[in-house]
Amino acid sequence: MDDDVTAASDPLLAALDDDQRVAAEALIGPVCVLAGAGTGKTRAITHRIAFGVASGAYDPARVMALTFTARAAAELRARLRALGAGAVPARTFHAAALAQLNHFWPLVVGGSAPRVLEYKGRLLGEAAERLRLRVDVPTLRDVASEIEWRKVSAVGMDEYELRLAARGAPGDLTAAQVLGLVAGYEQLKDERRMLDFEDVLLAIAGMIESEPSVAMHVRESYRHFVVDEYQDVSPAQQQLLDLWLGSRRDVCVVGDASQTIYSFAGATPEYLLGFARRYEDATVVRLERNYRSTAEIIGVANRLMRGRAGALQLEAVSGPSAASADPGVEPVVHEYADELAEARGAATRIRDRIDAGVPPEKIAVLMRVNSQSANLERALEEVGVSSRVRGAARFFDQPEVREAVHALRAAALTIAGEPLFKSVSDVLRSLGWTMQPPDGPGAVRARWESLNAIARLVDDAPEGTTFRAFADELRARAEAQHEPTVSAVTLATLHSAKGLEWDEVHIVGLTEGMLPIAYAKGFDAIDEERRLLYVGITRARRRLSLSWSRTGGAHRGEREPSRFLRELDSRTRDATRAGVGAGGRPAVRA
Fold it and tell me: How is 196-224 classified by DSSP, letter by letter?
């Protein structure tokens, strides 16, 4: 039987397109998958892992799938379970490193591993008191970010001191004061036998480098590595990956240089872009067929990134399951007099779309910084639309959700034999949930939406799921922060929107000084802002609107539209200067 027939007959491969299949069949040796937004990269790598397990090429216990957030790791695990490869571990770099550190510390050092510090601010505050420095909370946060950047970027203190002198210290601190704070923080941490998250990576890397028995154990435990979102890898994480691999070359990396938006946290696309140079015999696959967005949205994304290093040229895929199969709506740029008018304009368009039948959870408003959300929340409330700020309070951290999870778990110990929906809804009704939502937005509606999101999980449960199994799965979701869908419009920063998608996306605040942000100086910083907008644009499946306002409100100066808008269409600048769209009418097509 030839390879084509074999591939077509294997359900794990037959479900993939030609390029995805090439990636999935390349099970051995170095593999680099350059995957554009919406091209099915997660599908490709999970099917690759599952095919490796099903074909006997992989021992599932000896494969490590790595990513960068707990949510992404949870999604990988869920997909692998559905494909019959649930025994394959999928973890973040930090989770994998911490598990190894806890295992090896008693053997190598003795005693239990140090406690991991979750928040640097308190220790930095104590260090400031010892130095008799008065430092406000925002500056302490900035110093914490400096510590994190230095460690994940593998920058020594001498080099960091030179960088600090050249770039300047955060807040009103001098370079010497920052170095004193950093030294005091490290001393307090050592005195209390603690490690921060970045130390976890460095500590296990040090053990593998210095202890041959540790290196041998790790390399025997894991033979194959798959790294998702490889454009986000930092030097410290790359060093650890190299140590895990040793002399082996069975590593598959997947990423998109155009979605590198975390350089402030040490991420660099250089490892992705240089992979084929490092491994000259690597299998390199390009995924450029976009299944998410309409051709019109993809056209905007391609124009924005044309000519940038590593940029992929996306192609809209037509077909019954592709968004591009629908009649496309041209993305539009809207101009407003001020920020409040801009927020109200977006809210009015969203109200109209909900009235036309679009579910609120299929709509998002994306912004550069969290402070922009206040006007948007107010404007949406004015038109009776519920909204939810992503990243404010995590779903499972909300009091009503914690109460519901606890109540469901307790009830599941005593109730059996009833239909699942009846058992769940009875418990939720005891907490104030009703079948019909309350009128209007606000706190009461927000509480109802949270409880209703739990009720809707019953619809997603496999047939035959018991109440006890449902409660256990809910607890597992809470531990992994795998949030259910809440029926509300999402408000999110462009950073927090990465990895998500909606049918309709509104990107607001596209002015010079906001996007690109005012403190972005130099080509590299501006290019990261460009990539941030690209991420926002490619979150949209069917409709995209971009907007900007001429002022930020009373007593604020005139603004210019973002240079990115001007690049997307040469008519933008002329049209907006002529005053077209001043009342919120479309200024130009994007």
Answer: EHHHHHHHHHHHHHH-HHHHHHHHHH--E
